[in-house]
Design brief:
The chain is an alpha+beta fold. The chain has helices at about 15, 300-325, 335-345, 360-375, 375-385, 390-420; strands spanning about 5, 20, 80-85, 140, 155, 160-165, 175-185, 200-210, 220, 235-240, 245-255, 265-275, 300, 350, 390. Helix content is about 25%, strand content about 20%.
């Protein structure tokens, strides 16, 4: 059962908006926990919002939309949301260690050989680069912290943004997949096996299709932000190369540290770059499949891509409308939200995308991956049988929906202009 929270002035929703800051992981001091919870969120539609980047300090307040309700809700769904009376949390409340939750199953690993050099950091930092040279790099070893190693003898820790350019075996117009394993440990205590009162620190993987290293370029396509506390998670992103070189970028950002977590360690290991799998996977999932997966690409078709983008736009808008009504304390079902979420995971990917469609396709992939990542906490809440929707989870999910639509809607318009319909 979902429980909508309605406890503090709506103006405080702005405070829940994530404010990422790209930085190397380090110790820091922050303000005490704000224990005041929100009331009803606003109900006006948010249509175009700028994508939050780690260097931004002004993130727009997420605003709910008034989209219609999905009509294909399974009739047997019983999990509903109920509004709860306001309660005042103790001023000294302590957050319990979060139980690790399963992230959405990732897309398959890239096909063929790994095009990256030193993908597991076994040989130090070269040829990886960062804004400040190798001063941002440090490593965990299997001897000192085996649970911080995914495979081999080393993992990378403590970098804000690092990248590797790949000049060999890259063909413009080909779809590539960058992926890697990521883990977060953040705590106010010393037990390195569990995060207690963790900071909100996240990571993502990006692929620049032209061979540049900046994040804020239209040629940089990123996965959504993820925060896998105390577990390794594989994340990936697909993009069509627009040059004979590409750049794989790993980025970490601190969104807030209200809990005064002195430990904030982020770990990368086993990074890969290869061709996106070209053959569609075989068997359709059963109707009641619990674990949908991202599909392998199918051959490109302009109208098929345009139709996929239109369908995903509708799915994300419907999920946003349900999320807003849920946050306002209206009765909603987990089955309905998870229907939208699963539809996004199953949305089509394409191979053989022409150069003049690469930008449109890359915006589509960003919208899907960003929606999946930023709404994972809501999906996990449903998997656990429902519960209280916090101000922070709502703000992150709504901001992700807005960012996805902000990239997707112009891409649909551009596709319609190219097709002529």
């Amino acid at each position: 059962m979902f429980v909508g929270c309605q406890e503090a002035p709506a103006a405080e929703v702005a405070e829940a908006t994530i404010q990422p800051t790209e930085a190397a992981v380090a110790t820091a001091t922050a303000a005490p926990i704000n224990t005041t919870a929100p009331t009803n969120a606003p109900t006006e539609t948010a249509t175009a919002m700028a994508t939050a980047e780690p260097t931004e300090t002004n993130t727009p307040t997420p605003e709910p939309s008034e989209t219609p309700t999905r009509t294909s809700v399974p009739p047997t769904a019983t999990n509903t949301a109920t509004a709860v009376p306001p309660t005042e949390a103790p001023a000294t409340a302590t957050t319990a260690p979060p139980a690790p939750v399963s992230a959405p199953p990732p897309a398959p690993a890239p096909a063929g050989p790994n095009l990256l050099s030193n993908p597991g950091f076994e040989n130090g930092y070269q040829p990886w680069e960062s804004p400040n040279g190798n001063t941002q790099f440090s490593f965990h070893t299997a001897d000192s912290q085996p649970n911080f190693i995914h495979s081999g003898q080393r993992s990378l820790k403590g970098a804000g943004r690092i990248w590797q350019r790949v000049f060999s075996n890259i063909s413009a117009g080909t779809t590539y997949r960058a992926g890697g394993w990521f883990k977060v440990w953040s705590s106010t205590q010393e037990d390195r096996t569990v995060s207690v009162n963790p900071a909100d620190i996240r990571g993502r993987i990006c692929l620049n299709t032209f061979g540049d290293d900046a994040i804020d370029l239209p040629t940089t396509i990123c996965s959504g932000w993820v925060r896998p506390l105390d577990v390794w998670q594989f994340i990936s992103v697909d993009a069509v190369a627009t040059n004979d070189r590409v750049t794989v970028i790993l980025q970490v950002a601190l969104f807030n540290n209200d809990n005064n977590a002195i430990h904030r360690e982020t770990l990368w290991d086993d990074i890969t770059l290869g061709l996106a799998p070209s053959a569609a996977t075989a068997t359709p999932a059963p109707v009641a499949a619990a674990n949908p997966v991202r599909p392998n690409p199918v051959p490109f078709s302009p109208t098929a891509l345009r139709d996929s983008m239109t369908s995903v736009r509708w799915t994300i808008e419907q999920a946003g409308g349900l999320l807003d009504r849920l946050y306002n304390g209206e009765n909603q079902t987990c089955a309905e939200f998870q229907g939208y979420y699963d539809d996004a995971i199953r949305s089509a990917t394409y191979s053989g995308v022409p150069d003049d469609w690469a930008g449109i396709y890359n915006d589509y992939i960003f919208a899907v991956e960003n929606f999946i990542a930023t709404n994972e906490s809501i999906n996990a809440l449903c998997d656990g049988g429902g519960g209280g929707l916090s101000q922070l989870n709502y703000g992150a999910a709504r901001s992700g929906i807005n960012d996805s639509l902000n990239r997707l809607i112009p891409a649909i318009e551009a596709a319609n202009a190219k097709i002529g319909g």
